[in-house]
Every structure is written in structure tokens, then in C-alpha cells.
Amino acid sequence: MLTPRENFLMAAVEHKTPEWVPNEMTDVVMAGGMLETFENGPPGGGLDGFGVEWRSSVSANGQAVPAAGKIVLDDIAKWEDIVKFPDLDAYDWEGQAAFQLSGCDRTSKVVEYGCWNGQFLRMTHLMGFENALCALHEEPEACAALLSAITDYKIRLVERIAQYFRPDIITNFIDVAMERGLFMSPAIYRELISPQHKRLNDAIKSHGIIPFVHCCGKCEDIVPDFIEEGFAAWSSAQPINDIAGILKKYGNRFSVIGGYNTNGRPGLPDATDEEIEAEVKRCIEAYAPYGSFAIMGFRLVIGSDPASFFTAMAPINRALEKYGARFYKNS
After folding, report:
1. What does the alpha-carbon distance between residue 82 and residue 97 come to, in Å, rounded to a whole number?
2. Residue 247 neighbours by CB under 8 Å, 6+ apart
3. Which of 75, 142, 162, 231 could form a disulfide with 207 if both were Cys (CB 3.0 to 4.6 A apart)?
4. What is the pLDDT of residues 60-100, one digit of tens each?
């Protein structure tokens, strides 16, 4: 019998038929993310390594977000004089790797390092969302230069991640879309953002690490770009996209991780076990036949207590245990 690690990589990376439908939330050990204090500020809020102020948000269950009205970069043309980059050597890489991976059995689980603030998101944190989107149209050359500088910094970050965490996967959180579609035209994405994703992915792969992309929203129009940029899989894919069509067309070289309707009833705190089980069953029946698929189920959690998170995810995991293995045995 395969380990969860072997089963996950078989589906999500090797494009082979696994023994059961992999579960991103149980088969993978997550590192990085909000623990990158140089990127997301200290716990509870404060300044990050770029000088952006983060504040704890009740609506985000205690997770900090960039403070409204606190703009670091108000003129994209002046970014070279204003933007400062974190001192990566001031971070306790060795200590954080030991802490975050404590108890991790690498023979059984996949290790994934999440970089929550991709190049575009970092630009929005510096400028504010509206200003950043306007700048993409009004000052494309300055935007290209800033995005390139952010990528240079990210490549230095990857060097340290590779040395101390040795993950199987690095996921770049790009979030260039909303529920209706992209925040910018595909043409602007391809001109300004896509080249930086490819450059960062080349650096990730040079360390023997697999690059994944995280992007919420309806971004199916740029899935071919994800593939060209070198991403092996798309994480947190929501069913507002044609996931089945994407897997049917690209499943021999690109994987989809997600599928669960996080924005609908199954993602709400008061969703019943029956609603959750029905959604998991739908995901498996709709997407697993094409292969190259792992489910990523997530629900809104009330409260920042870790126990609340595990309690909320338990019905999803139980349903996947019930249906995940049965699908491939019966197919």
C-alpha cells in the first residue's frame, strides 16, 4: 500500500492513477505562510520587512491583513527610492524549520512551503489594491521593473527555503482573480506578471523543488500560462472554473488541487455533515475520473483556535475517507 506521500505525488506530480483520491489537507505538511513574519508581519499585527503595516482582522479570524489607508508606495515611478526589501538573514531559518517541521515524517507526508505573497500581491500590499491595478495600466514599465525586483528577492528567499526546509513543493500564492474573472486582462498578465512567475519557477526547479500555484477565483483563462510558466499544479481551484474541462485537456501535464465549493453552503460554518459529504462525493465523481486531481476541502472557521480548524475540517476528511478509495477500486 502506498503512503499518503507516494499517493499524493503519484496523482499531483506524476499524473498516474493513485490508490485513493489524495487529500491536500491531510497528506501534506504545510510550512511557511503566516509564519513568514518578514512577509506578513509579527503575530497579531505590525510591520513586515517591507515596512507595510499589518493589522489583525476579526473577519479573517485573527489573521492580519495590510492596514487600510497605510500606503508605502504612492507613486510606482519612485519605487526604487521607496521600496525596501526584508533582511532575510535576520530570520531564524534553522529554528523555524525545526519548529515548523517538528514531528514531520517525510517518508509519509509531502512537505509544502507556502509563499503567501506572490509578486502581484506584494505590489498590492505596497500600493493598495486599486492603485496597483491602475499602475499596471498607466505605468507598465515601472511595474515590470518593480515586479522583477520582487522576483529577485523571491529567488533569494527560495535559496533559504531550499537550504533549511528542503520542501518537496513551493507554492506561490498569486491570487490574480476574483469570482467573475481576472483582476487584469490576460494580455497585461502575460506581459507583466507571467515572465516573473516563470523566472521564479526556474529558480525553484533548480533546487529540485516542484512549483505549485495558488490562485483563488475564476482564472481558467490563464491555465495555459500556468503550464508555460512551469507550475506543476494549481492549488485551491474553485468550481467556478471548468475543472473537468481543464483536467480533460491538460491532465497529462498539469494537476488540479481543490474542487470543493468553499464559497457555497459546504464551506459555511453551519454546513451539515450531509451537505459536506454530498459535496465531497460530487468532487470525486466530477473530477477524479480524469486523474491528476487531489481534493482540497476548506470551510470558514469561527475563531483562531487551531482546534476549531481541525474540528471544522473533520467532516470533509471523513467523507473523503469514505469515498476516496472506493472510487478507484470501483473504476
Report:
1. 31
2. 256, 287, 290, 291, 292, 293
3. 162
4. 666 788 998 899 999 999 999 999 999 999 999 999 999 99
Report whether pLDDT(224) > 70: yes
Cα–Cα distance measured from residue 94 to residue 84, given in angstroms and rounded to the nearest whole number: 24
pTM: 0.96
Cα separation, 326 vs 200, in Å, equals: 39
What CATH number does the domain containing 50 carry? 3.20.20.210
Q: Which residues make Cβ contacts (< 8 Å) with residue 198, sequence separation at least 6?
A: 228, 229, 230
Among the ranges given (63-72, 116-125, 144-153, 250-259), the one the predictor scored with the smallest mean pLDDT: 63-72
In a 13 Å sphere around the CA of 105, the CA atoms on its Cβ side amount to 9
Q: Which residues of 30-64 are buried (b: 16+ CB within 10 A; e: fewer)?
A: bbbbebbbbbbbeeebbbbbbebbbebeeeeeebb
Whole-angstrom distance, CA of residue 231 vs CA of residue 223? 10
Q: What is the mean pLDDT of residues 123-151?
A: 98
Structurally, the chain folds into a number of domains equal to 1
Question: pLDDT tens digits for 280-289?
Answer: 999 999 999 9
Residue 90, burial from CB neighbour count under 10 angstroms (0-12, 13-18, 19+): exposed
How much is the pLDDT for 303? Answer: 60
Which domain covers residue 310, as residue numbers?
4-330
pLDDT band at 312 (very low <50, low <70, confident <90, very high): confident
